[in-house]
Amino acid sequence: MKVAKDGMELKNVLVVDDEPAMRHMLQLVLERAGFQFGEATNGAAALNLLAHQSWDAVLCDIRMPEMDGLDFLRQVLTRGLAVPVIMMSAFGTIDTAVECLKLGAFDYISKPFKPDEVVVTLRKAEERLRLQKENALLRQELAGKAGEQEILYGSPVMAKVMGLVSRVAPTPSSVLVCGETGTGKELVARALHRQSPRCRRPFIAVNCGAISPGLVESEFFGHARGAFTGAEQAHAGLFGAAHGGTLFLDEIGELPMEMQPKLLRVLQEGELRPVGSVQSRRIDVRVVAATARNLRAEIDGGRFRRDLFYRLAVVEINMPPLRERGEDIPLLAEHFLHRIALRENRAAPDLEPDILSLLQNYHWPGNVRELANFMEKAMIFCRGCQLKAEDLPWELRRRDRVAQDDYSLKAALYRLEKEYILKALRHCDGNRTQAAQLLEISLRNLQYKLKEYGL
Q1: Which segment of 50-59, 67-76, 349-358, 406-415 scores lowest on mean pLDDT?
Q2: How many CB atoms are closer than 10 A to CB 396?
């Protein structure tokens, strides 16, 4: 359903009636009230117009040739056309009105009616549309909050980051969040949005490297109907969807060079022009970008525009890697264990004291995301009330054992055999017979080794 740029105002109203005099009278009423008028003589013609044009509301007579109003209403609902339909009839009864409302009509008007009655009914539809939009945004916000991960920290370095987030969030300034993959850059972007005056408006996230190069401009700025082959409907684009809110541009370093000056212009001018349109429109969007690349090196290499960098990085927030925030690791590990346990409807295990040293001594190339992944793997193999070192993935245990058994071939073979057995079992979803075949050993031998390794 098309919504006017300045709110929930209805603009285009389609009148469906086989009587020319009625269509003319409604045209005068609607245009005097500021609506744009369209007409159709029966339900079939109206469906064709709805398929090829955008309409905000429909006034439809019940008795018409070819396709009457009730059949038209059924088709609107069957086709999933999100447009309020107001039924009209000079032969109406209470039963007719009830039937229309049961079928899904927004309202019912009996002919003859006063001009004001039509306008008031359309304003009611306008108000309902506004409330539905507000409710949808509220549900989206609540669902987002329910699904958001908290930014858990206890380390001084993260305390500084979150202090900067709190200072920057209320401003309209663009923010560039830098850091290795998996450090939580999107969580910071969501925190900036949540603590800003825009918190009740949309938060739209997009990975710049995941959009086809030929569609980047259309995805960002939208397109007009008929702008290119396949553009059957107008498209608001990501900036349009984020109007009034925050647009998170993840992996901004992946943005094609030809798109960078166009993004720069939108950020500088505060307006955009959809593909295929001759008119620009104002846009109110706070941009938060993120990158795992060194954009200054990209600038030196001619792969990123210096002026766009300065426009995006009004404030730069650097996310520390997990290996530099060792105080946070136990807190995060327990958080992930409890979250997984809640999802699987089981009790969260306690951490063995030895595990904490293993976790804090690991270098975490995948950062917080890798920690979450390792905790999920550990939960698969943990069967008691305490998470043990042997439940952890091999990458974590290897550092400790290699330190103790640097030159022990026997210990190395032991670790390798156990790891291969675990991989085979995971690959076969726990089927021991299939795992034994993969490992090229007998089932009896596998069972013996499972017992030997405490698996």
Answers
A1: 406-415
A2: 20
At 56-115, the pLDDT tens digits run: 889 999 888 888 888 898 888 777 677 889 988 887 667 777 788 888 888 888 888 888
- Are residues 39 and 185 located together in one domain of the fold? no
Q: What's the token pair of residue 261?
A: 């000056």
pTM, entire model? 0.56
Range from 138-142, 149-153, 244-248, 288-292 carrying the lowest mean pLDDT: 138-142
Residues of the domain holding 211: 148-320
Same domain, 183 and 116: no
Do 185 and 291 have their domain in common?
Answer: yes
> What domain count does the chain have?
3
Helices (H), 177-236: 185-194, 216-221
Co-location of 287 and 376 in the same domain? no
DSSP 3-state assignment of 108? strand
The residue assigned the tokens 């595990």 is 355
CA 139 to chain centre: 13
* d(C-alpha 272, C-alpha 257), whole Å: 18
Q: Which residue has the tokens 């910071």?
A: 188
Whether 6 is covered by a domain: the verdict is no
